[in-house]
Amino acid sequence: MEKTQELSEIINRHLAFDGIEPCALPRVKLIRSTTITPAMPTTYEPSLCLVAQGKKHVTLGHLDYVYDASQYLVASVDLPLQGSIIEASEECPYFCISLDLNVTVLSELMLEHGTGASATTSKPGIALSTVTPDLMDAAVRLLRLLDTPDDIPALAPLVEREILYRLLHGEQSEMMRHIANAESRLSQVSRAIVWIKDHYAEPFSIERLAREAGMSSSSLHEHFKAVTTYSPLQYRTRLRLQEARRIMVSDALDAASAGFKVGYESPSQFSRDYVRVFGAPPMQDAQRLRANPGFAMA
Q1: Which of 249, 251, 254 lies closest to 271 in space, CA to CA?
Q2: Same structural domain for residues 136 and 46?
Q3: Where do the HTH araC/xylS-type domain residues begin and end (predicted)?
Q4: Predicted TM-score of the model (pTM)
């Protein structure tokens, strides 16, 4: 409890308002919310999420994950999720840190400490595990450096390396090895995801995507769905719809323009897909989100 309290106090000192903000520490974001938030679409990149106070609920396809200060969340690939903060208040805000995983350092640690090659089976690309005292201690020491910024260049890489070491030898060791091993199925799926993100507004074939990932079409479909819970084309649709939703809210685009911008040729198909995923017509949903201060906190 003392460590989580200190983590909360540091976040509170360096993030005085609700939001998700990068800080002076490389690859680290600070997150604060004084209100619960509705379920909103968001994309988790490969990262560690460590809650100091409060509770969050995320959904990946049909899978649900609820975590607080007793558990950490690891995402192994870019995943389109629904996220909501379910425990937060003015008196006890939700505090969390997110650390993007440095795959280069993770690979070095795997080689240096003989953890072996990863297995070839694929599992969902998100997982929860119990926070250990060693992991929490390292996280607190990393954030303490925000109070002594001159120490960050020399000491932050060392503490970040320790955090990755703890993950590599913790409950999610297998997932960490998947991430670190360039030849694992997870790494191949990750390459496919990166390619889709770069080309989501363009038409493409599964055969082309499989070549980019270095897999057969059948193997890609099997492992892609195991990791993301979506087929590659369903994943692309999610990315398109989430980006369309974002630009309708932030740039005030109309539905037809937003649909064309993300790759839809038919406004009616865009509207049908949008209602199916988000439960409301595009412009009605965008107007609701503009009026909701919790939109950016998903």
Answers
A1: 254
A2: yes
A3: 190-288
A4: 0.86
Q: What is the reported pLDDT for 135?
A: 97
Q: How many angstroms separate the CA atoms of 193 and 235, rounded?
A: 9
Q: Which SS3 state, helix, strand or coil, does residue 201 take?
A: coil
C-alpha to C-alpha distance for 153 and 97, rounded to whole angstroms: 19
Asked whether 200 and 259 are in contact (CB, 8 A), the reply is no
Helix residue ranges, H only, 95-184? 103-112, 133-144, 152-168, 173-180
Quote the CA–CA distance of 262 and 251 in Å, as a whole number: 14
* Euclidean distance between CA atoms 81 and 15, whole angstroms: 25
Please check whether residues 290 and 265 belong to one and the same domain.
yes
- Tell me the residue length of the chain: 298
Measured between alpha carbons, how far is 100 from 255 in angstroms, rounded to an integer? 33
Q: Are residues 88 and 143 in the same domain?
A: yes
* CA–CA distance, 107 with 290 (Å, rounded to integer): 42
Q: Quote the domain boundaries for residue 76.
A: 2-180
User: What is the structure's pLDDT at 43?
Assistant: 85
Which CATH number covers residue 264? 1.10.10.60
Note whether 96 and 47 are same-domain residues: yes
Tally of structural domains, the chain: 3
With H, G, I as helix, E, B as strand and everything else as coil, classify residue 16.
Answer: coil
Domain boundary among 163, 180, 197: 180
Q: Is the pLDDT of residue 120 over 70?
A: no
